[in-house]
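Chain A, query sequence.
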Amino acid sequence: MLDAGDRQVQSLAVMRHPNIVALGQLLDDAECEALINGARALIRRSSTFSDNNKKEVTHASRTSDGMFYQRGNNPWVTKVEERLSHLLSWPMENGEGMQILRYGPGAEYKPHYDYFSPGSTGTPQILKRGGQRVATVVMYLNTPEAGGSTVFPQSKFDSMPVKGNAVFFNYSRAHPVSRSLHGGSPVLAGEKWVAVKWYRERAFN
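Chain A, predicted structure.
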């Protein structure tokens, strides 16, 4: 059991390289439902910025719908952020906003890295807002009927999407040597809701 401040969280599995920790009972049912209900009316097709960092574009490898809660957006978000900060010993101000994603049947996110590519022309501007991304927490807000695991293909590690559970992983270098390649496997039945927090090297603004 791990101390998260206001509750004890289960350590379900640990991998050392890459550093992956599967967490049990990080969120309770009320928190999961509140995060989903607050996002329903605001979600839209997930997108990313183009290489010049000036235009948002959708891309075929990411077929989810999503929205962002700004840091401290509401009491539910703040409570989860405080719990994560205590659990991970990571300053709250280093966290980006919380992204809520919905994956319908067949939707997936193909394997990718969460850090900003050092070779992209828009990266220097992004890094001014808190430095490079160094860690990710994926929190499962429901349990799909089938499919939807978080996969780490280089490590042959799968994190199953169970309501209230989560997976944490960090990457000390913005390079494939971090072995932090991961993806969301296709949802085979039902839908999958997740909340994602990314952490930066410094305070994010």
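Helices lie at 29-39, 75-88, 123-127. The longest helix spans residues 75-88.
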